[in-house]
Amino acid sequence: MALLRAGFTWPAGHPAAGGLLPHHFTVAPDGSGAVSFLWHSPSGHPDWALPSALLCGARTFLGHVRPRPSGRLARRVYPLGLLTNGIRIEEIAPLMSRRLLLHAGGDGTSARPAVIEHLRGARRAVMIPYAQSDHDRATARFQEWLTPHGVEITGVHTASDPRAAIAEAEAIFVTGGNSFRLVSALHSLSLIDAVRSAIDSGIPYYGASAGANVACPTIRTTNDMPIVQPSSFAAFNLVPFQINPHYIDPPPPEARIGETREERLMEFLDENDVTVVALREQGWLEVDGPSMHLRGTGGAVLFRRGADPAEVAGGADLSSLLVETPRFDA
Question: Which domains can be identified in the chain, with CATH numbers?
Answer without folding.
Answer: 1-92 (no CATH), 99-323 (3.40.50.880)
